[in-house]
UniProtKB/TrEMBL annotation:
The keyword Hydrolase applies. One of its GO terms (biological process) is dGTP catabolic process. It comes from the Archaea. Coiled coil: none annotated. SMART domains: HDc. Gene3D superfamilies: Hypothetical protein af1432. The keyword Hydrolase applies. This is Hd superfamily phosphohydrolase. The lineage of its organism: Archaea, Methanobacteriati, Methanobacteriota, Stenosarchaea group, Halobacteria. Residues 46-169 form the HD/PDEase domain. Pfam families: HD, HD_assoc_2. It comes from Halogranum salarium B-1. InterPro entries: dGTPase-like (IPR050135), HD/PDEase_dom (IPR003607), HD_assoc_2 (IPR045509), HD_domain (IPR006674).
C-alpha cells in the first residue's frame, strides 16, 4: 500500500492494481497536464494537474465501492478505470480536444488502444484484468461505468471541489462524503438514496456557479481560443500529426509552438499573457441559429471575411461560439417516496439554473487590442447579429460588451 498526502482529500491509500499503475509512463505523464488548462492565466494558483485529480477520483471510487459492497475483480477493474480515466487527455486538458477530435475522431475517453499496449496493458494483464473491460468503464459503459462517467460520477465530485480549492473561489464546495455514502443502484441505474434531493441540487448548483466564474471566464476563453488557433497552425506544418499532438503534455506543446515559425508569435503572447481582447461579447438570444449550428469550416469563413473587411491577418480574428447551454447533472436520479425520479422533474431549482445558464452564455469575438473594436463591428454585419443599440464601448479596457456587464 502507498499513502499519498492530497490537498483535498488528505491521505489517499493506493493499493492493488492502482499502486502498480501509479508509476507507469501513461499515468506519470498526467503530472505535466494542467487540470484547468489556461484558467491559470486568470487564477494564478490553478496549477493542479490531471495526476492529482486522477488520485482523487480513485479515492472517491474506492469509498463508493466500499459503501456499495462491490469487491473482487469488478472492484479492481473500477479502481483501475478511476485512476486511468484521464490518461487519454491531450495537452492543456480539454482546451484543444475539439481540434484533435476533428482530425482523429477520438475524445480523451477513447482509450482502448492506450490501455491495451505498453506498461499499462502489462500491469492490467498481470492483475488478471482485461484492458478492454477497463476501457469500457472509462467510457461510462454499462451499469458500473456510471460510477466513473455519468451524471453522479466520482470524476465530477472530485474536479468540482479540487478546482474550487485551487482557484480559491467558494462556489464548488460539495459534500463528497455524503454524495458517495448515498449512492445506490436501482434496476441498474446509479441513483441517490431517499432524502437526497438537496444533495443532488448541491452538485448541480456547484457546477452552475463554477461555470461562469471559472470554466467560462472570458480571459480563460480568449487564451483557450488562442491556444487552439496556434495548435491548428502547428498541425498545418508537416512535422506534427494529430495523433502525436494528442500524446503531448503541456510542456511538449508549448515548446513546439515556440520553435515553429508560424506559431512563435502566439506562443509569445501566451507566455507573456499578452492576450487578444474582446471585440464582441454577445448574448444567446442575439445570435442567429445559423451561427449557433455552423460547423468549424463555416466559422473560419466568417473569420476570413471579417479579416478582409478590417485588413487584419485572418489568423488574428477569432469567433468563439460555445455549444448551447446544457446541464447534464439535471438528469441525475434520486429516490423520492420509493420512486426513482429525474432531478429536473423533482427540483424547481433546475429550471432557474437553466435560465441563468442561458443568460450567462456569450459569443465572443477576439483580436489584437489595436484591431478588436473594428473587428467586432465588422462581425456584427458578417454574422447578421441583431444587437443594434445593445453594445457599448468600455473605454477603460477597450473591449466591447453588452450592457448587462455593468449591472
Amino acid at each position: 500500500m502507498i499513502t499519498i498526502k492530497d490537498s483535498v482529500h488528505d491521505h489517499i491509500e493506493v493499493e492493488g492494481v492502482a499502486a502498480a499503475l501509479l508509476d507507469t509512463p501513461e499515468v506519470q505523464r498526467l503530472r505535466h497536464i494542467k487540470q484547468l488548462g489556461t484558467v491559470r492565466l486568470v487564477y494564478p494558483s490553478a496549477n493542479h494537474t490531471r495526476f492529482e485529480h486522477s488520485l482523487g477520483v480513485y479515492h472517491l471510487a474506492s469509498q463508493a465501492l466500499s459503501h456499495l459492497g462491490i469487491e473482487g475483480t469488478l472492484a479492481e477493474r473500477l479502481r483501475a478505470a478511476a485512476l486511468l480515466h484521464d490518461v487519454g487527455h491531450g495537452p492543456y486538458s480539454h482546451n484543444i480536444e475539439a481540434l484533435t477530435f476533428r482530425h482523429t475522431g477520438k475524445y480523451h475517453d477513447d482509450v482502448d488502444e492506450l490501455l491495451a499496449r505498453g506498461e499499462v496493458g502489462d500491469v492490467l494483464r498481470d492483475h488478471d484484468l482485461d484492458p478492454a473491460a477497463v476501457a469500457e468503464l472509462v467510457a461510462g459503459d454499462g451499469q458500473y461505468g456510471q460510477l466513473v462517467s455519468g451524471e453522479l460520477d466520482v470524476d465530477r465530485m472530485d474536479y468540482l471541489v479540487r478546482d474550487a480549492h485551487h482557484t480559491g473561489v467558494p462556489y464548488g464546495t460539495i459534500d463528497t462524503e455524503r454524495l458517495v455514502r448515498e449512492l445506490t443502484f436501482v434496476d441498474g441505474e446509479l441513483v441517490l438514496d431517499e432524502g437526497n434531493v438537496q444533495t443532488a441540487e448541491s452538485l448541480l448548483l456547484a457546477r452552475a456557479l463554477m461555470n461562469p466564474t471559472v470554466y467560462q471566464h472570458h480571459v480563460a476563453r480568449i487564451s483557450k481560443a488562442m491556444l487552439r488557433r496556434a495548435s491548428e497552425r502547428l498541425l498545418a506544418e508537416p512535422d506534427v500529426t494529430a495523433d502525436q499532438l494528442r500524446r503531448m503534455d503541456d510542456h511538449d506543446l508549448l515548446a513546439s509552438l515556440r520553435m515553429t515559425a508560424s506559431t512563435t508569435e502566439l506562443a509569445r503572447r501566451l507566455d507573456r499573457r499578452d492576450l487578444y481582447k474582446r471585440g464582441l461579447w454577445v448574448e444567446l438570444d442575439d445570435v442567429p441559429e445559423h451561427v449557433l449550428t455552423a460547423p468549424h469550416e463555416k466559422i473560419r469563413e466568417f473569420e476570413q471575411n471579417v479579416a478582409e473587411q478590417t485588413d487584419v491577418d485572418p489568423d488574428e480574428v477569432i469567433i468563439d461560439v460555445p455549444a448551447e447551454p446544457s446541464m447534464k447533472e439535471s438528469s441525475s436520479r434520486v429516490m423520492v417516496n420509493g420512486d426513482v425520479r429525474q432531478l429536473d422533474h423533482q427540483s424547481p431549482l433546475v429550471g432557474a439554473l437553466r435560465t441563468a445558464q442561458r443568460q450567462q452564455w456569450r459569443l465572443g469575438v477576439y483580436a489584437p487590442a489595436d484591431a478588436a473594436d473594428r473587428v467586432g463591428e465588422a462581425t456584427v454585419d458578417a454574422l447578421g447579429l441583431d444587437i443594434e443599440g445593445s453594445l457599448v464601448n468600455y473605454v477603460r479596457t477597450g473591449y466591447r460588451t453588452t450592457l448587462d456587464q455593468f449591472d
